[in-house]
Structure formats: C-alpha cells, structure tokens
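SEQUENCE AND FOLD
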Amino acid sequence: MRVLALLPDRNSTDPDGTVRSDWSGAFRVEAERLIALHGGRLVQIDVSQRTAARRAQVRAVLGQARAEGPLDLVAFLCHGWRTGIQLGYGLDDVDGLAEDLVALAAPSIALYACGTEVCEPGELCTEPNGFAAELNSALVRRSAAL
C-alpha cells in the first residue's frame, strides 16, 4: 500500500500563549502509526505560513507524489472546521484540491480533521454542507469528467 500522510509541522498555540499538544500528541502520532502499518511517506506542512503558502506546500507535495506513481491513500491529519482545514484549504479551494487529488489516482482520501462536516453546538449553519461533503462532491465531479 502506498500512503501519503500530510500534517502540520508543530503544535498550535492558543491566543493566550498556551501551547497545545495537538501535533505531538495526536496528528504526528497517528500519522506515524499509519505509515508504520501501511508504508508510505509522512510530510509536514509549515503551518506558520499564510494560508496560500500552506496550500502551495501541499500542492507541491501532491505534484511530487503524482510523479512517483499512484497512491492508495492520501491522509490529511490536521485541525479542521466546517469551512476548511489547517493545511490551507477552505470551501473556496475544494475544486483545486479535488483536481490535484484526482490526478493522483488515489482511491482513498482520509480527513483526520475534526469538525469538517458538523456545526458546533449553538452555531448557525449558513453552509448547506461542510468541507468534507464539498470535497467529496468536487472529487465525484472531477472523477466523472475523466
């Protein structure tokens, strides 16, 4: 099995300066476990960069992976919310991400990213679908166009 796991490169920091153990205690641990079980490559994205720069890093990694041949699984292990993921993608960017993923011919895409499909308690949901559903729809559209 050929796996590509993408994750942030560090723990995040709350506005009050508290460092969270999200990367060291969850994302990195799970990515390393995934690679140990199935083989493949783990790539960390510099999340200190602006959103567009993070997206460019991911695109470069996906382009390199495409040159190396088909993948079985692309996994995103990062923070997520209903409108996007920490690695630089939001609802406005799902078509571009889908295009890059379809070009990889990876049959499986995993989002290890909380909240990409749900509204938080008490939150007014203005989007009919979250990031996960929108990415899935874009993947289906792109795949059907082949």
